[in-house]
Structure to design on (91 residues):
């Protein structure tokens, strides 16, 4: 699964384009964000990307979770988002 790393300085619209491209190619993507600003940009990017993939009949959903990562030798807690299409309801 491809991982997109999000920072406070990530541009939501550019991230949304990358997110939509990976969703179309692989069907699912993981995003990692450390800090409130990065989480904010990630959520905005998903909201924008929903508009990009909706014409293809894709309705995106997010599954958030905590993740321990290492940055410069220091352990940090990240928010990991798994983003993919909503599965149609079972009949």
């Amino acid at each position: 699964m491809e991982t997109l790393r999000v920072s406070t300085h990530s541009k939501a619209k550019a991230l949304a384009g990358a997110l939509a491209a990976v969703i179309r190619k692989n069907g699912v993507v993981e995003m990692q964000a450390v800090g409130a600003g990065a989480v904010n940009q990630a959520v905005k990017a998903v909201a924008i990307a929903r508009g990009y993939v909706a014409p293809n009949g894709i309705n995106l959903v997010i599954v958030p979770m905590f993740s321990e990562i290492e940055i410069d030798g220091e352990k940090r807690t990240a928010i990991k988002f798994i983003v993919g299409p909503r599965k149609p309801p079972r009949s």
